[in-house]
């Protein structure tokens, strides 16, 4: 039907997945299979969806689609998307894509001069937080207040003093439903006593999760604009949050010959490797900061004298990270995973 040759139609109107196979034809856009499934939940009064190749099309509908297209329609529905709002990518979790689509077409949050009330600088509500010791999720009252630059949470409704108080400009949030085991979950990282602290939380519904996430993003961008008044705000908007480059299980030995390999949950970001006893530990066991001068990564087994070194099925599963003061030995669960860790760590070293 040549609809994909129209500028903007070569990718999904909502998540930018290449080569869309569906159309929300009453809106005049082409979308991917995943976003098409979300559009169908909106109801036909908002979005009517058909496959481009598996269903019949009449000339009037085709002509309408040719006259519109993704670029033209998005200029209307995305007219006033704030720079702090996260636009979804194909790899993003379902809740990010769904709430973006609902915000665009159902709630029309970016249409005209509509303001996002939840990003106005103050937000109060309830989220479920994983306990530091008992590991169960408990309902907690959260308050975001940009005048104080804080995100606070309280154990009980009547409590006056918060259980935790986080500086907004020091927070990082990642939406990680698969890791945490809930569709509306995210991980919050911040510094506490010069150490990384993790909170794992979820919201009762996807809209509430994204509103909290977006409220913090809005607050952080405002703080960045104050701190860096001469930096272009579009550039600042790319610095609001960061994502893990990779995370997963690795085994690690201590610095002494004969130290045993111990299984650790390891995360990699653009600054450091961090390792934990398990994925939900509030504090890390250790952090390896990565620079450029004097830092290396290579496939190598140097601690063959580890007390449980017989567990090393293939030396190619082992790799080391060299920093100026010492060398860290890691062991992946497969050769392919070791190769991926090495490649990604090397990229971080080069970029620093």
Give average pLDDT, whole number: 93
Instruction: Identify the CATH homologous superfamily of the largest domain.
Output: Pleckstrin-homology domain (PH domain)/Phosphotyrosine-binding domain (PTB)
**In order across it, which strands form the biggest sheet?**
7-6-5-4-10-9-8
CATH class of the largest domain: Mainly Beta
Structure, described:
This protein is of the alpha+beta class. The chain folds into 3 domains: 3-106, Annexin V, domain 1 (Orthogonal Bundle), CATH 1.10.220.150; 117-237, Pleckstrin-homology domain (PH domain)/Phosphotyrosine-binding domain (PTB) (PH-domain like), CATH 2.30.29.30; 246-351, Pleckstrin-homology domain (PH domain)/Phosphotyrosine-binding domain (PTB) (PH-domain like, Roll). It is built from 8 helices and 17 strands. Strand 9 and strand 10 (195-202) form a beta hairpin. Helix 1 (33-42) crosses helix 4. The radius of gyration is 24 Å and the shape is globular. The chain starts with 21 loop residues before the first strand and ends with a helix. The model has no long low-confidence stretch (mean pLDDT 93).
């Amino acid at each position: 039907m040549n609809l994909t040759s129209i500028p903007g139609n070569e990718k999904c109107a909502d998540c930018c997945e290449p080569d869309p196979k569906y159309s929300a034809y009453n809106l005049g856009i082409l979308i991917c299979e995943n976003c098409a499934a979300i559009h169908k939940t909106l109801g036909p009064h908002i979005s009517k969806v058909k496959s481009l190749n598996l269903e019949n099309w009449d000339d009037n509908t085709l002509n309408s689609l040719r006259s519109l297209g993704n670029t033209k329609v998005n200029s209307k529905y995305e007219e006033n998307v704030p720079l702090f709002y996260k636009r979804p990518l194909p790899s993003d979790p379902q809740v990010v894509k769904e709430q973006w689509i609902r915000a665009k077409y159902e709630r029309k949050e970016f249409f005209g001069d509509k303001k996002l009330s939840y990003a106005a600088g103050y937000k109060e509500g309830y989220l479920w937080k994983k306990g530091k010791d008992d590991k169960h999720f408990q309902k907690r009252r959260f308050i975001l207040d940009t005048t104080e630059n804080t995100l606070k949470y309280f154990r009980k409704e009547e409590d006056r003093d918060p259980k935790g108080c986080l500086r907004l400009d020091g927070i990082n949030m990642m939406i990680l439903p698969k890791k945490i085991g809930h569709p509306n979950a995210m991980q919050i990282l911040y510094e506490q006593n010069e150490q990384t602290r993790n909170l794992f939380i979820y919201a009762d519904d996807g809209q509430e999760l994204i509103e909290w996430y977006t409220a913090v993003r809005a607050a952080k961008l405002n703080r960045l604009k104050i701190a860096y008044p001469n930096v272009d705000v579009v550039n600042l908007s790319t610095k609001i949050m960061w994502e893990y480059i990779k995370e997963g299980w690795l085994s690690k030995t201590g610095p002494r010959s004969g130290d045993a390999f111990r299984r650790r949950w390891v995360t990699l970001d653009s600054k450091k490797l961090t390792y934990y006893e398990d994925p939900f530990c509030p504090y890390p066991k250790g952090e390896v900061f990565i620079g450029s001068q004097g830092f290396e990564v290579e496939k190598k087994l140097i601690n063959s004298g580890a007390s449980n070194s017989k567990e090393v099925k293939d030396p190619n599963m082992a790799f080391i990270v060299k920093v100026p003061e010492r060398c860290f030995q890691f062991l992946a669960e497969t050769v392919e995973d070791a190769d991926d860790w090495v490649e990604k760590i090397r990229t971080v070293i080069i970029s620093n």
